[in-house]
Specification:
mainly alpha; globular; single chain
């Protein structure tokens, strides 16, 4: 995936991961930081997109499959839960 080797993208992804982890733990500081963690909506969107990319690649490695197959599996899992 393009951008996964970019140190700036990695920094944004780690920032997004910290916010997600804090939110999952119901940490009020992390929840409040969502507003101030990024310089713009575009930067926040990019950070979360990079984070998803890293996680999909990691999941693909754990499942010993191609990332495209993992994307298909995640998509079908989400769609199954919507119904």
């Amino acid at each position: 995936m393009a951008g996964l080797d970019d140190p700036a993208a990695a920094d944004l992804a780690l920032r997004a991961l910290a916010l997600v982890a804090g939110t999952v733990r119901s940490d009020p500081d992390a929840i409040d930081l969502h507003v101030d963690a990024f310089d713009s909506i575009e930067e926040a969107g990019g950070a979360f997109a990079y984070l998803v990319g890293y996680l999909l690649v990691a999941l693909a490695c754990a499942r010993a499959e191609d990332p495209a197959a993992t994307v298909d599996w995640v998509r079908s899992t989400i769609e199954h839960r919507r119904t």
